[in-house]
Amino acid sequence: MESETIISEQFYSNNSSTISKQALNGSFFRTNEKAKQIHVKRPTSPIGLTIIIATFLLMIAGVCSVFLLQDEFEQFHFERIASTWGLPFLIITTILFFYQTGVFLYSSYLYLRYKPIESVSDELLPTCTIIVPAYNEGKLVWDTLLSLADSDYPAEKLQLLAIDDGSKDDTWYWMEQAKAKLGDRVTIFQQPKNQGKRQALYRGFKLGTGEIFVTVDSDSIVKKDTLRNLVSPFVVNEKCGAVAGNVQVLNNKSAILPKMLNVSFVMSFEFQRSAESQLGSVLCTPGALAAYKRDAVFNCLPEWINQTFMGEPSDIGEDRALTNMILKQGFEVRFQRNAVVLTNVPEEYKGLYKMFIRWARSNVRENLMMAKYVFKDFRKESKFGPRMLFLNQFFKIAMTYPFILFMFYFIAVHPILFLSSTFLGILIFSSFSMIFYAKRYNLAESFWAYSYSVFYTFSLFWIAPYAIATANKKGWLTRGL
């Protein structure tokens, strides 16, 4: 992600003596204070309140329109069934609807049974290597490294490695500042040129000495108990090969998009991954915070670093790929809700859609990889969970183009019916996210669930079909200054 503060290397080389230790420490404490206030209830800004009110007016208009246009809806329904493609499409979508409903209900049951593993004692905690790859993160990497060093984890069991991946800004300067403050507690490295996040992580894996590897993005802040909570599942479950952390939005008070994403992230992690964890099959350990058993990593390290797609080296989706390869070995992958990391997300539309394109392309690639082993005897325990999750992802990808074509047809033939049914659907399906967030945190922020659904439906619907069509394209997309 882009750095919040970019100051040239020349400025620092000429003025580094004017930056006091107190100022550097003050920055870290301000960041920690911000981290504590992620879900604190605050008055909604006038712009935010206007957006939420407008969202509800649109949904209410949709409900009223559906009620008033019932005859038109019935006529469209009969016309669709009478067409050559209409009845088969209706049968397929009905089957998928009941399948998705079943998956959702089962996931809800799994969520209710989920409990994070409590932290084990200092004596039982394994040795741990933390790898922080950084590229053009500026001062954010300083905040990340100090938050990690401030963790409630035995210092003698912690190895902290920071790797500058050929940054073009002042990232290396801030790594040096962290090294000057932390001394032997952190080791810093500089790649000779920008080679990509996967190569930086690979260097960390090869240098690391810990029993557990932890990867942390360089624009993220961990809470004091995050590390010990993250690695505890490895101690109590020998079948555990990887653990996903709980990612929340750090900059959710600074712009509208992060406010929306904050609610979305809570649903994605605290609901979805909790359910996946009960199946031992979390599909993706996030780059912002994840832990891996050393043996599980080295069993697939050559395959991972040399991974290709359609003959080209893979330079995206390193987190999803590593998770996939660990699942393939028969290990379980778990989620720790009590291992919280706070990370920055894009604040503008361009940065957001680029991030989503990268994620969607990775999803397409890794589902193809997963298809090669998921129906084989890849682990001794039940394989129902990973197979169900795979099919759920597969059907979403397979039906992307049929649904897009139907959407355009619906808009062309009956635009009013499309808009009214869409807003009614958003009201119904987003209510679960809203209630879930309100129950977990606070009511005021939960209403962003509706605004996010409206925003995604009308401005980001094209991500999935575009990502499928361009799944072979390389490039991180959001690694510039």
Automatic annotation (TrEMBL):
Gene Ontology CC entries for this record: plasma membrane
One Pfam family named in its UniProt record: Glyco_tranf_2_3
Iron recorded as keyword: no
Main location: membrane
GO molecular function: hyaluronan synthase activity
GO biological process: extracellular matrix assembly; hyaluronan biosynthetic process
Keywords on record: Cell membrane, Glycosyltransferase, Membrane, Transferase, Transmembrane, Transmembrane helix
Name this protein carries in UniProt: Glycosyltransferase family 2 protein
Source species of the chain: Flavobacterium potami
